[in-house]
Amino acid sequence: MARTLGADVPFFLHGGTALGTGRGDEIEPLLDVSSLWFVLSVPPFSLPEKTARVFRNLRADELTDGLRTLQLAAALRAGGSPGSCDLYNGLRSAALRAFSDLGPYLAGLQGASGRVWALSGAGPACYTIAASRAEAEDLGRCLENLRGLRYVTSAVPPGAMGVG
Asked: Which of 1, 94, 109, 163 is deepest in the core (most CB within 10 A)?
């Protein structure tokens, strides 16, 4: 049933760290990284039909073979933990073209926090990784002068959603 609602719905119902393949609905559990914390930042602007517009802005030379994702999954299988160098989203350039305010917003996040920020999905929400709750809360406070919403959250452990 979840698959019929959207390709990524099974992923979110599963909980935990996982690799989504196929349409994103074939879930392979990976190493639990629920000890990691994240800071999410949602800018104060929106774009009607954003996902469609971001994908229309995606150029053929920006399509990837998924190698970075597969390398991260392999590192997690081997017991590694994701870091800021792993923050990548192939839609970033297309989203920057679709959202004229996104580039300056990301620059503001990086300038205020000194951290690398990644686009979440088709955007415009962004996130960064923190090693602890205290670090995530400190990062959230660094952003208080920027417009938009901020959330500090931990990763969801496997089975937390009651599925999987």
From this structure: 109
Query: For residue 61, what is the DSSP state?
Result: G
DSSP 8-state assignment for residue 72: H
pLDDT category of residue 7 using cuts at 50, 70 and 90: low
> Are 150 and 40 within 8 A, CB to CB?
yes
Domain positions in the chain are: 34-154
| Residue tagged 């119902």 (tokens) | 13
Q: pLDDT digits over 32-88, tens only?
A: 777 789 999 999 988 888 889 999 999 999 888 888 888 888 888 888 878 777 888
37-42 and 18-21: which strand pairing? unpaired
CA–CA separation, 127 and 85 (whole Å): 13
CATH number for the domain whose boundaries are 34-154? 3.30.70.890
Dist CA 38 CA 9 (whole Å): 20
Give the residue among 95, 148, 115, 104 at the shortest CA–CA distance from 38: 115
Per the document, the length of the chain is 164
